[in-house]
Amino acid sequence: INTRTLLDYIEGNIKKKSWLDNKELLQTAISVLKDNQNLNGKM
User: Fold this and answer.
1) Number of domains forming the structure of the chain
2) Which superkingdom is the protein from (predicted)?
3) Does the predicted model carry a pTM greater than 0.70?
4) What pLDDT score does 9 carry?
5) CB atoms within 10 A of CB 25
6) Residue 18: predicted pLDDT
7) DSSP collapsed to 3 states, 2-42
8) CA torsion sign, 19 to 24 to 25 to 28?
9) CA distance linking residue 43 with residue 35, whole number of Å
10) Domain housing 10
11) 1-43 tens-digit pLDDT
């Protein structure tokens, strides 16, 4: 998943007020971004 897609996904979910709480969504996003950073850093 790329960052652009992730941001679009987050924006869409926040706008829809989906089943995910916004704080939870933000935490998930941060975790994914950190994981991506770790993977990219090792490459």
Assistant:
1) 1
2) Bacteria
3) no
4) 80
5) 16
6) 55
7) CHHHHHHHHHHHHHHCCCCCHHHHHHHHHHHHHHHHHHHHH
8) negative
9) 13
10) 3-42
11) 677 888 888 787 766 665 556 688 788 888 888 888 777 776 4
